[in-house]
């Protein structure tokens, strides 16, 4: 009898569902690391897992989810919108973090209508969503419009929008009232009503990123707590200096691209007293205008600690035909770069560095002369340079006179995309640290 009881106990132990007995918090954590498609399937395991799934606060209908939907055959003829609505509207608790990526250009199924997006966003904004990542690309005209309910939603703290246009109201009171982090990619800002547009006060905004956007001069904001600002490749129109100038007083990190620098009126720049980190993306050392503006920016940042530059990828022809005017500018001891020292600058990093560019070398020579607190200089070589050329550059840089006796020069790497990857990785909002 005792042997039989032991045998029964062994069978019971072998058949126990240990995973289902995990604490609810652990199960929810497991769902967090699963794709939405797999997380939804856990509801079939048991009633306990179904309850955890219905109370899961994070949903991601990303490109992987959409791709799996396209590859599967749905005998019931359900659309992507039907599936998303069924999952979203069955929640037992509010969805705090929501991701949706739709690109109708590569989706053979019926495209979601604007009314579908409006309904989804209204549900999210009315049910406590805090983090929203919305990527909508349409092959139809007109493109998707970001619903106003998201602009006025009081629970959203982090918002990433890619694709749709935003129709900004003239009376912008209450827009993004609790948002701390905003990122817009391939977004066009419009003013749907003629009249005097008021500046948008975003009282809690700390991070703002604009990439490949149009009409950003219409997005007039006055965020008193803004610390990080990135404006990259906004080629739809010129980034006006009057738009950027007010933000220079408060921000701590600024990321600009060479194209934006080329179009700015530097006379409107105020002293960026709080700026600690300046990052310049695709700076063209052969462009006199970009060099002038970047020099003025340096002089406007008395407390700058870190300077990072990703040089514009020059062709062989560009390397051999340097802009003589830009070269004379750097050689001119009366130019703005020589007017004062960069007392706080301790780190310089330049990527895609080219040994063919005399302007880059002269630029580095000037920085070494004007930076008494400099500790570290990192040069990431251009993709076409070999190891011997890297050593040659390092020896040449080490021969330049330095204001700081502690400045160390390091030449490394072969990855032109490193800084670009940094941009992608640190934007979650993909913003710089």
Describe the protein's architecture and organization.
- It is built from 16 helices and 15 strands.
- The chain starts with a helix and ends in a 7-residue tail after the last helix.
- It has helices spanning 2-15, 24-32, 36-41, 47-54, 63-71, 80-89, 114-126, 148-151, 241-244, 258-262, 288-299, 316-320, 324-331, 358-369, 387-399, 418-426; strands spanning 58-61, 97-103, 131-137, 158-162, 165-168, 181-185, 188-191, 207-211, 228-232, 253-257, 277-283, 306-311, 347-353, 376-381, 408-412.
- The chain has 433 residues and is of the alpha/beta class.
- The strands form 2 sheets. It has a 13-stranded parallel β-sheet with strand order 1-2-3-4-6-8-9-10-11-12-13-14-15, sandwiched between helices. Strands 5-7 form a two-stranded parallel ribbon.
- α11 (288-299) runs parallel beside α13.
- α14 (358-369) links the parallel β13 and β14.
- It has 3 domains: 20-56; 60-226, no CATH class; 264-433, Leucine-rich repeat, LRR (right-handed beta-alpha superhelix), CATH 3.80.10.
Give the SSE layout:
Layout: H1 2-15, H2 24-32, H3 36-41, H4 47-54, E1 58-61, H5 63-71, H6 80-89, E2 97-103, H7 114-126, E3 131-137, H8 148-151, E4 158-162, E5 165-168, E6 181-185, E7 188-191, E8 207-211, E9 228-232, H9 241-244, E10 253-257, H10 258-262, E11 277-283, H11 288-299, E12 306-311, H12 316-320, H13 324-331, E13 347-353, H14 358-369, E14 376-381, H15 387-399, E15 408-412, H16 418-426
């Amino acid at each position: 009898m005792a042997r039989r009881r032991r045998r029964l106990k062994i069978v019971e132990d072998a058949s126990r569902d240990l995973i289902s007995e995990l604490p609810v918090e652990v199960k929810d954590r497991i769902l967090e690391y699963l794709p939405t498609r797999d997380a939804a399937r856990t509801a079939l395991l048991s009633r306990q897992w179904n309850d955890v799934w219905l109370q899961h606060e994070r949903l991601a209908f990303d490109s992987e989810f959409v791709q799996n939907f396209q590859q599967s055959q749905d005998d019931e003829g359900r659309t992507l919108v039907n599936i998303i609505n069924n999952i979203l509207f069955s929640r037992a608790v509010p969805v705090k973090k929501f991701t949706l990526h739709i690109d109708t250009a590569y989706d053979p199924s019926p495209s979601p209508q604007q009314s579908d997006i409006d309904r989804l966003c209204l549900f999210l904004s009315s049910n406590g969503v805090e983090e929203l990542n919305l990527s909508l690309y349409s092959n139809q005209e007109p493109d998707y419009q970001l619903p106003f309910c998201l602009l006025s939603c009081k629970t959203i703290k982090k918002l990433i929008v890619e694709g749709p246009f935003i129709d900004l109201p003239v009376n912008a009171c209450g827009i993004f009232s609790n948002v701390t982090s905003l990122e817009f990619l391939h977004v066009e800002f419009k003013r749907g009503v003629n009249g005097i547009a008021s500046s948008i006060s975003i009282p809690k905004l700390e991070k703002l990123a604009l990439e490949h956007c149009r009409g950003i001069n219409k997005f007039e904001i006055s965020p008193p707590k803004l610390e990080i600002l990135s404006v990259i490749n906004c080629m739809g129109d010129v980034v006006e200096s009057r738009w950027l100038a007010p933000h220079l007083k408060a921000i701590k990190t600024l990321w600009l691209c060479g194209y934006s620098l080329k179009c700015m009126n530097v006379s409107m720049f105020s002293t960026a007293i709080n700026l600690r980190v300046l990052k310049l993306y695709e700076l063209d050392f052969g462009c006199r205008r970009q060099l002038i503006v970047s020099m003025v920016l340096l002089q406007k940042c008395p407390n700058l600690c870190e300077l990072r530059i990703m040089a514009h990828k020059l062709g062989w022809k560009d390397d051999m035909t340097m802009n003589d005017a830009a070269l004379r500018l750097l050689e001119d001891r009366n130019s703005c770069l020589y007017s004062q020292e960069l007392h706080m600058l301790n780190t310089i990093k330049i990527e895609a560095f080219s040994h063919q560019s005399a302007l880059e070398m002269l630029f580095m020579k000037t920085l070494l002369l004007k930076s008494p607190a400099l500790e570290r200089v990192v040069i990431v070589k251009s993709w076409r340079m070999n190891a011997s050329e890297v050593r040659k550059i390092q020896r040449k840089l080490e021969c330049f006179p330095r204001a700081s006796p502690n400045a160390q020069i390091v030449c490394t790497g072969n990855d032109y995309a490193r800084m670009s990857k940094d941009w992608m990785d640190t934007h979650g909002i993909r913003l710089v640290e």
